[in-house]
Amino acid sequence: MDLMPIIKKRRSVRRFKNKEICPELIENILQAGRWAPSGLNNQPWKFMVLEGENKDALCKFTHCQSIIKSAEKLIAVFLNKKTSYNYQKDLMAIGASIENMLLYIHCQGLGACWLGEILNQRKKVHKFLKLGSTLELEAVIALGYPLAKTKTSRRKPLKDLMIK
Amino acid sequence: MDLMPIIKKRRSVRRFKNKEICPELIENILQAGRWAPSGLNNQPWKFMVLEGENKDALCKFTHCQSIIKSAEKLIAVFLNKKTSYNYQKDLMAIGASIENMLLYIHCQGLGACWLGEILNQRKKVHKFLKLGSTLELEAVIALGYPLAKTKTSRRKPLKDLMIK
Q: Which of A11, A146, B83, B150 has CA atoms 20 to 30 A from the CA of B134?
């Protein structure tokens, strides 16, 4: 199977159709996230799915209101501090889990945007969601069916990324 | 395309055949890593490919000697501090880049192991590789053609990962 077109064509999607995502699809997206690799297989992630009023309420903690409003659902991704053994490695594992979900979302004809700016108001989000101290918000994935064709993106040339 | 079997069947591979990986394949693996998402598209990663004596020399910085010896090549993944804007988000982006490479490697019939324990001797590795202060080692990927069928792995049930 050639994975390259999937990896290259996945783009951030910021505007979505008013079309529901079925629960089975959401579950599969989370399954994709769950199967990521992690150091010592500690699986340091936790997930929360937000929709409707709960979803829209997050608008007040970010500049990305329009993306959140437009999204059909949000998946909030947390570090589970109880299972953490190395903060740096746990963050990389969570990045791998998020990428699994983003690639899976793309393969299903859905689109998503990885929101990070909301972390600036992490404490307020925690308070609003009534989360215990064992969780730390690391990202919010906004998702839905894409409204329009996504734009292209760019990357630095590989030669500029290589260390000889 | 159904990505789920790829995500679920990718496993850590720790023993490899004595068979060369062609340069085009290595370049494609790095391309997969290069196309990961990152905050503000800052692409905070740098890569170094190690083989032969240089590869084997890394054995002295880790307990994973047998994996490094057996691997045909290593890809060392670094944070490029020059392009860093948020350490947490950069680490997650690097995790996404590594996952892209691991999935691509698996799709090509190769196998890999994400080595993290070597970070305990990060300073010594930096010195040995004569790296400047703008780079920070985050992971080493050992890769090659798998010697044997890989074992299964386990994950926590999804219900244990969900926050209501």
A: A11
A16-148 to CATH, choices 3.20.20.140, 3.30.930.10, 3.40.109.10, 3.40.50.300? 3.40.109.10
Query: Which residue is associated with the tokens 């990962």?
Result: B161
Neighbours of A129 (CB within 10 A): 17
Report DSSP state, residue A85: S
Taking one residue from A and the other from B, the number of pairs with CB-CB distance under 8 angstroms is 169
Record: contact B92-A98, CB cut-off 8 A: yes
For residue A5, CA distances in Å to A12, B31, B104, B145 come to 15, 11, 11, 23
Is the minimum CB–CB distance between B100 and chain A shorter than 8 Å? yes
Tell me the ipTM for this assembly. 0.97
Hey, where are the domains in chain A? 16-148
For B8, the 3-state DSSP assignment is: helix
Residue A129 CA to residue A125 CA, distance in Å, equals 6
